[in-house]
């Protein structure tokens, strides 16, 4: 039950508890709360909770109400309906500003960003940037990750993605000299979060072989070819099947493997990798990779032009969603657990190399990682390193 005193103490609420105790609060209007006003409520300690507020408390309520009305008069909304100064407003600016770093991101990166931005807008979009504290962000991190009673995150990837997205848009706002973003950027830098567990799943060589068998049984040699290359060469999915980008003149396919350009006539592979922004080049003598050669040599010479991996259904490079759908269906037929994803072929390749007692330097070259490679003045050793790795993993017989 509430006792109201709106004329002399606007916003004052007296809550009558079952025990007879009276708790008194000042409460902002619904419109102000929706617009992101903070604080939403304030506890009025010196109010006994009578029908009429004591004069000092009434004056305090009138001051609080006036400050709230001043805030509302200054609130405007964006085309998307977000109140200026809120997280939702900043997120909209980040995606709509023609000069924003968002505009330079690849389509697949934007897709991931958009998912996290949607979560931010739906969960904390109404919060004013200048009112956010480190406690708020730590609480949000737990909520985004669906934290259980023991403090474990059920979805650490979701929590991590949202925090990183918050950092990105706040950094963007800081660059626009927004003082609230500058303050929040400092808070985010100083705030620690419980780290989520990284993926530990890998795919084994036996599972890859089983996948290849099932892919052929399903009349999908493109899937067998793609996974064989991913596993043998430790390449990311995008660098093998490519990706489709939306442009003003339509969709364009890019990044994926091409005959002639990446897979040479002498069966050497040279592929700039997307993770390194195409600065690092994966190099392999494919003749040392029998599982790859077994799939490539079946492609007629007259067809060895353009994209290496084509969807049998459309005759065009795969759309990522369709590739993922088919991978799961074939993986299930091959009795590969659902917790093993296509992205785990890369981890499986590197783990397989270490299991075969590869040198760490060679394993780093296999993954085109920079940590050790940056210590090398020249990169001419990569093909020699991947040759050594290939012989360890697949034997010393040339195929072709």
Strand order of the largest sheet: 1-2-3-4
Q: What value does the average pLDDT take?
A: 83
Number of strands: 10
Order of helices and strands: EEEHEHHHHHHHHHEEEEEHEHHHH
Shape: elongated
Cα-to-Cα separation, first versus last residue: 84 Å
Q: What is the count of DSSP helices, taking H or I runs of 4+ residues?
A: 15
Radius of gyration: 29 Å
Q: Work out the helicity level.
A: 40-55%
Question: Tell me about the biggest sheet?
Answer: 4 strands, antiparallel
- Structural class by secondary-structure content: alpha+beta
Beta-strand fraction estimate: 5-15%
Unreliable runs: 371-381
Structure characterization notes:
There is one protein chain. With about 400 residues, this protein is of the alpha+beta class. The chain is about 45% helix and about 10% strand. A four-stranded antiparallel beta sheet has the order 1-2-3-4, covered by helices on one side. The protein has a two-stranded antiparallel ribbon with strand order 5-6. The chain is elongated and about 90 Å long. The model is unreliable at about 370-380 (pLDDT under 50).
Produce the secondary structure layout.
Layout: E1 2-4, E2 12-16, E3 22-27, H1 30-34, E4 41-43, H2 55-74, H3 87-96, H4 107-124, H5 134-144, H6 156-175, H7 179-190, H8 205-217, H9 221-233, H10 237-241, E5 243-247, E6 250-254, E7 258-259, E8 268-272, E9 281-285, H11 290-296, E10 306-307, H12 320-333, H13 344-355, H14 360-366, H15 382-394
Helix pairs in contact: 3-6, 4-6, 5-6, 6-7, 8-9, 9-11, 9-13, 14-15
Based on the model shown, name its key terms:
400 residues, alpha+beta, four-stranded antiparallel beta sheet, two-stranded antiparallel sheet
């Amino acid at each position: 039950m509430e006792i109201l005193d709106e004329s002399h103490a606007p916003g004052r609420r007296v809550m009558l508890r079952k025990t007879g105790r009276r708790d008194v609060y000042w409460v902002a209007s619904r419109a102000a709360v929706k617009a992101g006003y903070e604080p939403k409520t304030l506890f009025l300690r010196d109010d006994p909770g009578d029908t009429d507020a004591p004069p000092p408390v009434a004056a305090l309520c009138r001051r609080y109400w006036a400050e709230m009305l001043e805030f509302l008069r200054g609130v405007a909304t964006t085309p998307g309906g977000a109140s200026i100064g809120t997280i939702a407003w900043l997120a909209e600016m980040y995606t709509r500003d023609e000069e924003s770093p968002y505009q330079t991101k690849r389509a697949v990166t934007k897709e991931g960003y958009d998912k996290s931005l949607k979560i931010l807008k739906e969960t904390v979009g109404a919060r004013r940037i200048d009112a956010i504290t480190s406690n708020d962000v730590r609480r949000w991190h737990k909520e985004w990750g669906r934290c259980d009673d023991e403090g474990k995150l059920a979805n650490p990837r979701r929590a991590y993605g949202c925090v990183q997205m918050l950092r990105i848009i706040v950094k963007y706002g800081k660059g626009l000299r927004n003082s609230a973003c500058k303050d929040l950027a400092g808070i985010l830098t100083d705030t620690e979060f419980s780290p989520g567990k990284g993926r530990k799943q890998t795919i084994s060589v036996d599972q890859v072989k089983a996948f290849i068998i099932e892919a052929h049984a399903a009349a999908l040699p493109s899937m067998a070819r793609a996974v064989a290359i991913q596993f043998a060469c430790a390449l990311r999915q995008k660098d093998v099947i490519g990706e489709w980008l939306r442009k003003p003149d339509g969709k364009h396919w890019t990044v994926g493997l091409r005959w002639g350009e990446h897979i040479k006539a002498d069966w050497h592979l040279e592929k700039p990798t997307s993770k390194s922004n195409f600065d690092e080049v994966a190099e392999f003598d494919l003749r040392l990779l029998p599982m790859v050669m077994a799939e490539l040599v079946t492609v007629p010479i007259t067809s060895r032009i353009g994209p290496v991996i084509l969807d049998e259904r459309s005759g065009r490079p795969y759309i990522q969603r369709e590739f993922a759908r088919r991978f799961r269906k074939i993986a299930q037929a091959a009795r590969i657990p659902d917790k093993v994803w296509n992205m785990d072929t890369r981890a499986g390749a590197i783990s397989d190399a270490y299991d075969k007692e590869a040198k760490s330097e060679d394993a780093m070259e296999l993954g085109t990682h920079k940590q050790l490679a940056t210590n090398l003045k020249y990169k001419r050793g990569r093909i020699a390193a991947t040759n050594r790795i290939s012989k360890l993993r697949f034997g010393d017989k040339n195929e072709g």
